[in-house]
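Title: Prediction job returns without error message
Component: structure pipeline
Severity: low
Priority: P3
Assignee: unassigned

Description:
Job completed but the reporter wants confirmation the result is attached to the right record. Sequence as submitted:
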Amino acid sequence: MPRHAFRLVPAAILLGALAASPARAGVYADELSKCLVGGAGAKDKTNLVRWVFANSALHPELASVASFTSAQRTEINRTVGRLFERLLTESCRAEFRDAMSYEGPQTIEMSFSVLGQVAMRELMSHPEVAKGFGELESFISEEKISAAAKASPEE
């Protein structure tokens, strides 16, 4: 396995967490996705990632590494609620209407999943974040991974 492939593991894990819909998007969902991504600015995308992070921190297993006050979480939820509302009722109103009419409510999940993936990718492209994820490499044996990839199925 090439050394650079290890760098993709954290990205794949985080993006997979955001990509909740395995279904293929139709043409209207694709148009809605493009509109959402284009209509959301850098700050909007950061707020979306902050929202995922803050609400993920509610899980008991994460409570020791991240905490938000109730007021902080309320403000984050309010900010992202306004973002969703703006995107669906103003910026992407026609695309949203068409997607709902022709492809149904699942288009919302699919389209926002695309926006979430783009937002996460942008966050992870920051040099400090990439450096932090890169530290994982020092805890993975390239030799063991390569050997496992070459092992016969009977082992």
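Comment from assignee: result matches the submitted record. The longest helix spans residues 70-91.
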